[in-house]
User: What shape does this take?
Amino acid sequence: MASRDYKYEVQVVKLERAMRVDKSLVEQLEKALSKKMISGMKKEAVECPVLKSQVSFLQCYACPNFVRRVRGVVYCRGLPLGGAGRNA
Assistant: This one.
């Protein structure tokens, strides 16, 4: 049996209104994703097992612990983030 490359499975939650996301993070992601996709992702959130709080999916997507997202489930490595992490 293959070893798992993730520690947590986290459900993506749809929100009525978009969560605030750091502008520098959005600018960084605009290089790889379309504006329409980014605006849709701003209206999604996850309960981060590392930060122990609800965060925007965009923040989760940019996190080094992000493995993949399949059918509304995010797979997270769950490793501790350093103080200089992108998501800390």
Remarks:
- The mean pLDDT is 88.
- The CA atoms of residues 9 and 75 lie 5 Å apart.
